[in-house]
Amino acid sequence: MDQLELDGLDGGTDHLYFHFDVDEHYLKLETFIHTADSARKVIASINENLFESSLKYELIVLPPADGSFLTKLALSVAIGWGAIQFLDSDVVAAYVDGLTGKPPAEWAKELGEISHEGGKSVYSALSSEPKPEKERKACQLSASIVMAMARGILEKETTELKKIGMGSGPLIDALDARAEFYAACLQDGDIARVGFSLDNIFPVPRSTFAERSQKPPRRPEEDEPPEWTVSIESIYVTSPNWDEDDQRVRHWKGKDQSRRDCYFVIDDAEFWALVKKKDLHVDVLDNLKVQWACQITDGRAKNRRVVRVLEYNGNTLADPLSDDALDAILGKHQAVTARREEPTLFDDLF
After folding, report:
1. Beta carbons of 20 and 120 less than 8 angstroms apart
2. Is 334 helix (H, G, I), strand (E, B) or coil?
3. Is residue 342 classed as helix, strand or coil in its secondary structure?
4. 3-class DSSP state for residue 336?
5. Are the C-beta atoms of residues 114 and 125 closer than 8 Å to each other?
6. Three-state secondary structure of 255-292
7. CB atoms within 10 A of CB 59
8. CA 240 → CA 13, 208, 286, distances in Å?
9. C-alpha–C-alpha distance, residues 126 and 78, integer Å
10. Which of 64, 76, 77 is nearest to 31 (CA)?
């Protein structure tokens, strides 16, 4: 696939370059396969652990160029809208800034998404676009940020990554993939240095391959998935998604009882039955009282899901699920009581 064909792909695209400093213009097949697969794992970790797998993409290998062996990978994003909502999260924004050197708003400004200074979020700025243009820009922004983050993970020194918080955070799987990348480089004695641009600049010398190939230590409990934490809370909905299947890509957005942004999906089958029957009175901004659950990893709430919608705009819909019912749905879980004007279950556990 040449550049002309790449430009014709739907959605947004960006590139990641692996520039290997070798005497001859070739690379061992095993090295090529292992380094490309390591990059795939880095990108998959970013998507899964920061964007909750909302990014739908394809990773494409482009023909190498002449000179020192250059691997060119293209990320083609078909659905990027779901990932954009997470850019407003403080945690995600910190990783974007730390790995790329620019916060999400700066990326958006470069692409022309935000034309004014101030506190307007990336998600809100894109929401005002016509749908086709909004989706195209969301895909392009997602592709550019993810590829820049992947480059940062592979290129930056280990001490820099630890300062960002990657040593034990949600991207620890990406560090494992990074270690595999440099283990493959270490095994190939023909590689003197590695770079990540089209230029003949190689910031990673062979003398650092051994240190970079070491996987980070993991705490024993990280082998076990975190248990679910359940609470009953009121949510002020700011951006619903009335498509039951599409909500897996673009989550519901609202504010919890502490007025913090939250993203979630609704797994309550009875609620969706009422939606399909059009038995709900929908307002511009809706209020839900829900029984919901999340998993806490490294002090961060993930996989937030509403298991039962109790009230909708003040109208009672259902009673909370019993402990036995929750056990059947979630398995091991703990209950936390969150009352109005007090910290939510997510604050309690940080």
Report:
1. no
2. strand
3. coil
4. coil
5. yes
6. ECCCCCEEEEEECCHHHHHHHHCCCCCCCCCEEEEEEE
7. 15
8. 28, 48, 8
9. 17
10. 64
Q: Which of 327, 150, 308 is nearest to 227 (CA)?
A: 327
Residues 6+ apart with CB under 8 A from 155: 196, 203, 204
CA distance 192 to 200: 13
Helix/strand/coil (H, E, C) string of 221-263?
Answer: HHHCCCCEEEEEEEEEEEECCCCCCHHHCCCEEEECCCCCEEE
Per-residue pLDDT of the chain (350 residues; tens, 9 = 90+): 344 344 444 568 899 999 999 887 788 999 999 999 999 999 999 998 888 888 888 888 887 665 567 888 888 888 777 788 888 888 899 999 999 999 988 888 877 665 544 445 777 777 666 777 778 888 899 999 999 999 999 999 998 998 888 877 788 899 999 999 999 999 999 999 999 988 888 999 999 999 999 988 876 655 566 788 999 999 989 888 888 887 777 788 888 888 888 889 999 988 998 888 887 776 666 889 999 998 887 677 788 899 999 999 888 999 998 888 888 788 778 887 654 444 444 444 33
Report d(CA 350, CA 346) in Å as an integer: 7
Helix (H, G, I), strand (E, B) or coil at 18: strand
Kind plus residue range of the DSSP H or E element containing 99: helix 90-100
Query: DSSP character for 1?
Result: -
For strands 228-239 and 333-335, give the pairing.
parallel
Residue closest to 231 by CA, chosen among 156, 151, 161, 336: 336
- Measure the N-to-C terminal CA separation of the chain; round to a whole number of Å: 48
Token pair recorded at residue 141 = 């922004």
Distances (CA, A) of 283 to 14, 104, 139, 145, 238: 40, 31, 30, 35, 11
Tokens 């213009």 sit on residue: 25
